[in-house]
Amino acid sequence: MSDNVKRRATRRVFSTAASMGMILAVSAAVGCNGGVLGGSGPIVPTPLASADFGSVRLRMLICELQVPAERVMELDSDRLAAGATDEKAFLDRLSKLGAAKVLYRLDQTVDLNSTSQIKAGVRKPFVTAARVTQSGRTMRTVQYERLGAVCKVTGKAVKDADPPHMRAEVNVDLSTMSDSGVKISDKVQARVLRMVTLVHAGSVQLGRPFVMVSTTPGAQGKTESAAFVCRGVFTRPN
Protein backbone atom coordinates (compact mmCIF):
# COMPACT_ATOMS: atom_id res chain seq x y z
CA MET A 1 0.00 0.00 0.00
CA SER A 2 1.38 3.41 -0.94
CA ASP A 3 1.56 6.17 1.63
CA ASN A 4 0.66 9.75 0.88
CA VAL A 5 3.66 11.78 -0.10
CA LYS A 6 3.79 15.55 -0.46
CA ARG A 7 6.51 17.78 -1.79
CA ARG A 8 7.11 21.46 -1.73
CA ALA A 9 9.61 23.46 -3.73
CA THR A 10 10.66 27.10 -3.53
CA ARG A 11 12.31 29.42 -6.00
CA ARG A 12 14.94 32.03 -5.28
CA VAL A 13 17.28 33.86 -7.64
CA PHE A 14 20.60 35.45 -6.75
CA SER A 15 22.60 37.25 -9.45
CA THR A 16 26.15 38.46 -9.87
CA ALA A 17 28.59 39.33 -12.65
CA ALA A 18 29.95 36.33 -14.51
CA SER A 19 32.86 38.44 -15.71
CA MET A 20 34.16 38.53 -12.13
CA GLY A 21 34.02 34.74 -11.87
CA MET A 22 31.34 34.67 -9.21
CA ILE A 23 28.82 31.93 -8.58
CA LEU A 24 25.08 32.41 -8.83
CA ALA A 25 22.46 30.41 -7.00
CA VAL A 26 19.04 29.76 -8.50
CA SER A 27 16.58 27.25 -7.13
CA ALA A 28 14.24 25.44 -9.50
CA ALA A 29 10.61 24.98 -8.59
CA VAL A 30 8.41 22.14 -9.74
CA GLY A 31 4.64 22.34 -9.78
CA CYS A 32 3.33 19.21 -11.42
CA ASN A 33 0.50 17.27 -9.83
CA GLY A 34 1.49 13.73 -9.00
CA GLY A 35 5.15 14.54 -9.48
CA VAL A 36 6.06 13.09 -6.12
CA LEU A 37 5.28 9.48 -5.39
CA GLY A 38 5.79 7.16 -2.46
CA GLY A 39 5.68 3.41 -2.18
CA SER A 40 6.77 0.49 -0.05
CA GLY A 41 8.77 -2.57 -0.92
CA PRO A 42 9.59 -6.08 0.33
CA ILE A 43 10.38 -6.62 3.98
CA VAL A 44 13.97 -6.44 5.17
CA PRO A 45 14.56 -9.00 7.96
CA THR A 46 14.60 -7.33 11.38
CA PRO A 47 14.38 -8.69 14.94
CA LEU A 48 10.98 -7.89 16.43
CA ALA A 49 10.62 -8.86 20.05
CA SER A 50 7.54 -6.78 20.75
CA ALA A 51 5.03 -4.59 18.95
CA ASP A 52 5.57 -1.84 21.52
CA PHE A 53 8.73 0.18 20.93
CA GLY A 54 9.92 3.68 21.74
CA SER A 55 12.77 4.03 19.28
CA VAL A 56 13.64 2.77 15.81
CA ARG A 57 16.63 2.72 13.52
CA LEU A 58 16.27 4.70 10.30
CA ARG A 59 18.52 3.98 7.36
CA MET A 60 18.09 6.26 4.37
CA LEU A 61 19.80 6.49 1.01
CA ILE A 62 19.41 9.82 -0.83
CA CYS A 63 20.29 9.83 -4.53
CA GLU A 64 20.27 12.21 -7.47
CA LEU A 65 19.37 10.81 -10.87
CA GLN A 66 19.83 12.43 -14.28
CA VAL A 67 16.99 10.93 -16.25
CA PRO A 68 16.18 11.52 -19.94
CA ALA A 69 12.91 13.34 -20.52
CA GLU A 70 11.31 10.35 -22.21
CA ARG A 71 11.95 8.16 -19.14
CA VAL A 72 10.66 10.49 -16.43
CA MET A 73 7.34 8.64 -16.30
CA GLU A 74 9.20 5.44 -15.40
CA LEU A 75 10.11 6.94 -12.02
CA ASP A 76 7.44 5.02 -10.16
CA SER A 77 8.05 4.75 -6.43
CA ASP A 78 6.05 1.54 -6.06
CA ARG A 79 8.17 -0.21 -8.67
CA LEU A 80 11.37 1.16 -7.18
CA ALA A 81 10.34 0.10 -3.69
CA ALA A 82 9.41 -3.38 -4.90
CA GLY A 83 13.01 -3.95 -5.93
CA ALA A 84 14.62 -2.12 -3.01
CA THR A 85 15.43 -5.22 -0.95
CA ASP A 86 18.87 -3.75 -0.27
CA GLU A 87 20.91 -0.73 -1.32
CA LYS A 88 22.66 -2.54 -4.15
CA ALA A 89 19.41 -3.72 -5.73
CA PHE A 90 17.97 -0.24 -5.37
CA LEU A 91 20.96 1.45 -7.01
CA ASP A 92 20.95 -1.13 -9.80
CA ARG A 93 17.35 -0.24 -10.63
CA LEU A 94 18.17 3.47 -10.62
CA SER A 95 21.17 3.01 -12.90
CA LYS A 96 18.90 1.48 -15.53
CA LEU A 97 16.97 4.75 -15.70
CA GLY A 98 19.89 7.18 -15.89
CA ALA A 99 23.12 8.39 -14.32
CA ALA A 100 22.71 7.99 -10.56
CA LYS A 101 24.90 9.15 -7.70
CA VAL A 102 24.54 8.78 -3.96
CA LEU A 103 24.31 12.14 -2.22
CA TYR A 104 23.93 11.00 1.40
CA ARG A 105 23.61 7.90 3.54
CA LEU A 106 21.83 8.37 6.86
CA ASP A 107 21.83 5.77 9.64
CA GLN A 108 20.56 6.79 13.04
CA THR A 109 18.37 5.65 15.91
CA VAL A 110 15.42 8.00 16.37
CA ASP A 111 13.29 8.50 19.47
CA LEU A 112 9.58 8.18 18.79
CA ASN A 113 8.73 10.30 21.85
CA SER A 114 10.03 13.46 20.15
CA THR A 115 10.91 14.88 16.75
CA SER A 116 14.32 13.66 15.63
CA GLN A 117 16.45 15.64 13.19
CA ILE A 118 19.36 14.36 11.12
CA LYS A 119 21.59 16.77 9.19
CA ALA A 120 24.20 16.18 6.53
CA GLY A 121 25.93 18.79 4.36
CA VAL A 122 27.81 22.09 4.44
CA ARG A 123 27.20 25.84 4.46
CA LYS A 124 28.70 27.34 1.33
CA PRO A 125 29.29 31.04 0.55
CA PHE A 126 27.88 32.59 -2.64
CA VAL A 127 28.50 36.07 -4.01
CA THR A 128 25.07 37.62 -4.56
CA ALA A 129 26.06 41.15 -5.62
CA ALA A 130 29.12 43.21 -6.56
CA ARG A 131 29.86 46.89 -7.06
CA VAL A 132 32.92 48.97 -7.86
CA THR A 133 33.66 51.94 -5.61
CA GLN A 134 34.90 55.32 -6.83
CA SER A 135 38.40 54.28 -5.86
CA GLY A 136 38.12 51.24 -8.13
CA ARG A 137 37.78 48.71 -5.36
CA THR A 138 35.34 45.85 -5.91
CA MET A 139 32.93 45.23 -3.04
CA ARG A 140 31.08 41.91 -2.92
CA THR A 141 28.03 40.78 -0.98
CA VAL A 142 28.26 37.21 0.27
CA GLN A 143 25.39 35.03 1.40
CA TYR A 144 25.75 31.58 2.94
CA GLU A 145 23.50 28.80 1.73
CA ARG A 146 23.20 25.38 3.27
CA LEU A 147 23.77 22.56 0.79
CA GLY A 148 22.77 19.15 2.03
CA ALA A 149 19.93 17.20 3.58
CA VAL A 150 17.87 17.72 6.70
CA CYS A 151 15.70 14.79 7.72
CA LYS A 152 13.01 15.22 10.39
CA VAL A 153 11.22 12.18 11.77
CA THR A 154 8.18 11.85 14.02
CA GLY A 155 6.32 8.65 14.71
CA LYS A 156 4.38 6.47 17.09
CA ALA A 157 4.20 2.71 17.42
CA VAL A 158 0.87 1.09 16.57
CA LYS A 159 0.05 -0.89 19.70
CA ASP A 160 -0.28 -4.67 19.33
CA ALA A 161 0.16 -4.49 15.56
CA ASP A 162 1.29 -7.76 13.98
CA PRO A 163 3.52 -7.39 12.06
CA PRO A 164 4.81 -4.28 13.88
CA HIS A 165 3.78 -0.97 12.33
CA MET A 166 4.27 2.66 13.21
CA ARG A 167 2.63 5.90 12.19
CA ALA A 168 5.45 7.99 10.81
CA GLU A 169 6.13 11.26 9.05
CA VAL A 170 9.49 11.69 7.38
CA ASN A 171 10.43 15.13 6.02
CA VAL A 172 13.53 15.39 3.85
CA ASP A 173 14.71 18.88 2.83
CA LEU A 174 17.32 18.79 0.06
CA SER A 175 19.51 21.57 -1.32
CA THR A 176 21.93 20.69 -4.11
CA MET A 177 23.95 22.63 -6.64
CA SER A 178 23.51 21.70 -10.29
CA ASP A 179 26.41 21.17 -12.66
CA SER A 180 24.99 23.65 -15.17
CA GLY A 181 23.97 27.30 -15.07
CA VAL A 182 21.29 29.60 -16.42
CA LYS A 183 22.13 32.68 -18.49
CA ILE A 184 20.45 35.71 -16.95
CA SER A 185 22.00 38.30 -19.29
CA ASP A 186 25.10 38.78 -21.44
CA LYS A 187 27.26 39.31 -18.36
CA VAL A 188 25.39 37.32 -15.76
CA GLN A 189 25.46 33.54 -15.41
CA ALA A 190 23.41 31.81 -12.72
CA ARG A 191 24.07 28.51 -11.02
CA VAL A 192 21.04 26.42 -10.16
CA LEU A 193 20.42 25.64 -6.51
CA ARG A 194 17.69 23.02 -6.33
CA MET A 195 15.61 22.99 -3.15
CA VAL A 196 13.07 20.21 -2.66
CA THR A 197 11.07 18.91 0.30
CA LEU A 198 9.85 15.32 0.31
CA VAL A 199 7.31 14.14 2.87
CA HIS A 200 6.36 10.52 3.51
CA ALA A 201 3.43 10.23 5.92
CA GLY A 202 1.33 7.29 7.00
CA SER A 203 1.56 3.75 8.29
CA VAL A 204 4.99 2.12 7.92
CA GLN A 205 5.80 -1.52 8.56
CA LEU A 206 9.11 -2.11 10.28
CA GLY A 207 11.57 -3.72 7.91
CA ARG A 208 9.69 -2.70 4.75
CA PRO A 209 11.51 -0.10 2.61
CA PHE A 210 9.67 2.98 1.37
CA VAL A 211 10.68 5.21 -1.53
CA MET A 212 10.07 8.89 -2.29
CA VAL A 213 10.61 10.46 -5.72
CA SER A 214 10.65 14.03 -6.99
CA THR A 215 11.77 15.51 -10.30
CA THR A 216 12.96 19.01 -11.19
CA PRO A 217 13.30 20.46 -14.69
CA GLY A 218 16.69 20.43 -16.35
CA ALA A 219 18.55 23.63 -17.14
CA GLN A 220 17.75 25.52 -20.31
CA GLY A 221 18.78 23.60 -23.37
CA LYS A 222 19.14 20.35 -21.43
CA THR A 223 17.23 17.21 -22.39
CA GLU A 224 17.57 15.58 -18.96
CA SER A 225 15.79 16.26 -15.69
CA ALA A 226 17.15 15.83 -12.20
CA ALA A 227 15.28 13.42 -9.98
CA PHE A 228 15.78 13.02 -6.25
CA VAL A 229 15.06 9.53 -4.98
CA CYS A 230 15.08 8.57 -1.29
CA ARG A 231 14.97 5.00 0.00
CA GLY A 232 14.26 4.58 3.70
CA VAL A 233 13.63 1.68 6.04
CA PHE A 234 12.75 1.55 9.73
CA THR A 235 13.92 -1.39 11.85
CA ARG A 236 14.31 -2.15 15.52
CA PRO A 237 17.50 -0.66 17.05
CA ASN A 238 20.46 -3.00 17.37
Describe the structure.
This protein is 6% helix and 55% strand. It is mainly beta and 238 residues long. The protein has one domain (4-235). A five-stranded antiparallel beta sheet has the order 1-8-7-6-5, with no helix packed on it. It has a five-stranded antiparallel beta sheet with strand order 2-9-10-3-4. A hairpin with a 7-residue loop joins strand 9 (210-216) and strand 10 (224-235). The longest helix is centred in the middle third of the chain and has 9 residues, at 87-95. Mean pLDDT is 74; it is low at 1-38 and 43-51.
Please outline the helices and strands.
Blueprint: E1 4-9, E2 37-40, E3 55-68, H1 77-82, H2 87-95, E4 99-111, E5 116-132, E6 138-157, E7 165-185, E8 188-205, E9 210-216, E10 224-235
Antiparallel strand pairs: 1-8, 2-9, 3-4, 3-10, 5-6, 6-7, 7-8, 9-10
